[in-house]
Amino acid sequence: MKNDILKINYNKEIDAVVLEWITAPISSEFREGLTQGLELLKSTNAKNWIGDVRNLGAIDPDDQKWSNEEWFPLALSTGLKKMGVIISDDIFNQMSVDEIMSKVEGAGFASQYFDDIDKATQWMKI
Fold this sequence. Notes:
CATH topology: Transcription Regulator spoIIAA
Number of domains: 1
Distance between the termini: 27 Å
Number of strands: 5
Strand content: 15-25%
Radius of gyration: 13 Å
Largest sheet: 5 strands, mixed
Protein backbone atom coordinates (compact mmCIF):
# COMPACT_ATOMS: atom_id res chain seq x y z
CA MET A 1 0.00 0.00 0.00
CA LYS A 2 1.30 3.44 -0.89
CA ASN A 3 -0.11 6.95 -0.91
CA ASP A 4 1.26 10.47 -0.57
CA ILE A 5 1.76 10.06 3.18
CA LEU A 6 3.21 6.60 3.66
CA LYS A 7 4.23 3.29 2.17
CA ILE A 8 3.45 -0.03 3.88
CA ASN A 9 4.55 -3.46 2.76
CA TYR A 10 5.37 -6.91 4.05
CA ASN A 11 8.95 -8.14 3.69
CA LYS A 12 8.72 -11.93 3.73
CA GLU A 13 12.51 -12.40 3.95
CA ILE A 14 12.59 -10.83 7.42
CA ASP A 15 8.93 -11.49 8.35
CA ALA A 16 8.36 -7.77 8.87
CA VAL A 17 5.84 -5.09 8.17
CA VAL A 18 7.76 -2.10 6.84
CA LEU A 19 6.08 1.27 7.27
CA GLU A 20 7.80 4.29 5.74
CA TRP A 21 6.44 7.77 6.33
CA ILE A 22 6.89 9.84 3.18
CA THR A 23 5.75 13.11 4.70
CA ALA A 24 4.50 14.35 8.05
CA PRO A 25 0.88 13.30 8.57
CA ILE A 26 -1.91 15.03 10.40
CA SER A 27 -3.28 13.19 13.44
CA SER A 28 -5.94 11.19 11.58
CA GLU A 29 -3.42 10.13 8.92
CA PHE A 30 -0.92 9.09 11.59
CA ARG A 31 -3.47 6.91 13.34
CA GLU A 32 -4.87 5.48 10.10
CA GLY A 33 -1.36 4.65 8.86
CA LEU A 34 -0.44 2.78 12.03
CA THR A 35 -3.81 1.02 11.99
CA GLN A 36 -3.25 -0.11 8.39
CA GLY A 37 0.20 -1.37 9.36
CA LEU A 38 -1.35 -3.24 12.28
CA GLU A 39 -3.88 -4.89 9.97
CA LEU A 40 -1.02 -6.06 7.72
CA LEU A 41 0.84 -7.31 10.81
CA LYS A 42 -2.22 -9.38 11.73
CA SER A 43 -2.99 -10.68 8.24
CA THR A 44 0.60 -11.83 7.60
CA ASN A 45 1.29 -12.99 11.17
CA ALA A 46 4.55 -11.04 10.92
CA LYS A 47 6.72 -11.02 14.01
CA ASN A 48 8.76 -7.94 13.14
CA TRP A 49 8.16 -4.27 12.36
CA ILE A 50 10.36 -1.63 10.75
CA GLY A 51 9.18 1.94 11.08
CA ASP A 52 10.97 4.54 8.98
CA VAL A 53 10.10 7.77 10.78
CA ARG A 54 12.70 10.04 9.18
CA ASN A 55 10.00 12.13 7.47
CA LEU A 56 7.40 11.85 10.22
CA GLY A 57 8.17 15.10 12.05
CA ALA A 58 7.18 15.71 15.65
CA ILE A 59 4.34 13.52 16.91
CA ASP A 60 1.47 15.28 18.66
CA PRO A 61 1.26 14.38 22.39
CA ASP A 62 -2.30 13.05 21.90
CA ASP A 63 -1.02 10.76 19.15
CA GLN A 64 1.85 9.64 21.36
CA LYS A 65 -0.68 8.74 24.05
CA TRP A 66 -2.88 6.94 21.51
CA SER A 67 0.16 4.98 20.26
CA ASN A 68 0.99 3.80 23.76
CA GLU A 69 -2.51 3.17 25.08
CA GLU A 70 -4.30 1.90 21.97
CA TRP A 71 -1.91 0.85 19.20
CA PHE A 72 0.96 -0.81 21.06
CA PRO A 73 -1.21 -3.18 23.13
CA LEU A 74 -2.85 -4.40 19.92
CA ALA A 75 0.49 -4.73 18.12
CA LEU A 76 2.01 -6.65 21.03
CA SER A 77 -0.98 -8.98 21.20
CA THR A 78 -0.06 -10.23 17.69
CA GLY A 79 3.21 -11.70 18.98
CA LEU A 80 5.46 -8.87 17.78
CA LYS A 81 9.07 -9.77 18.59
CA LYS A 82 11.25 -7.02 17.11
CA MET A 83 10.80 -3.38 16.17
CA GLY A 84 13.45 -1.46 14.29
CA VAL A 85 13.01 2.30 14.05
CA ILE A 86 14.81 4.37 11.42
CA ILE A 87 15.23 7.67 13.21
CA SER A 88 15.34 11.18 11.88
CA ASP A 89 18.00 13.85 12.35
CA ASP A 90 15.13 16.09 13.52
CA ILE A 91 15.44 16.50 17.29
CA PHE A 92 11.68 16.96 17.73
CA ASN A 93 11.02 13.71 15.90
CA GLN A 94 13.64 11.94 18.02
CA MET A 95 12.08 13.27 21.21
CA SER A 96 8.59 12.16 20.11
CA VAL A 97 9.76 8.67 19.18
CA ASP A 98 11.78 8.36 22.40
CA GLU A 99 8.72 9.35 24.42
CA ILE A 100 6.61 6.63 22.80
CA MET A 101 9.26 3.93 22.95
CA SER A 102 10.18 4.66 26.57
CA LYS A 103 6.63 3.78 27.60
CA VAL A 104 6.79 0.31 26.03
CA GLU A 105 10.31 -0.60 27.10
CA GLY A 106 10.35 -4.05 28.66
CA ALA A 107 7.00 -5.02 27.11
CA GLY A 108 8.30 -8.32 25.74
CA PHE A 109 9.77 -7.28 22.40
CA ALA A 110 13.19 -6.05 21.29
CA SER A 111 13.60 -2.60 19.81
CA GLN A 112 16.50 -0.75 18.31
CA TYR A 113 17.14 2.55 16.52
CA PHE A 114 18.95 2.72 13.18
CA ASP A 115 20.03 5.39 10.73
CA ASP A 116 19.08 3.42 7.62
CA ILE A 117 16.76 0.62 6.61
CA ASP A 118 19.53 -1.76 5.54
CA LYS A 119 20.93 -1.88 9.07
CA ALA A 120 17.47 -2.51 10.48
CA THR A 121 16.90 -5.28 7.93
CA GLN A 122 20.20 -6.95 8.89
CA TRP A 123 19.27 -6.77 12.58
CA MET A 124 15.95 -8.50 11.84
CA LYS A 125 17.88 -11.47 10.45
CA ILE A 126 19.76 -12.07 13.73
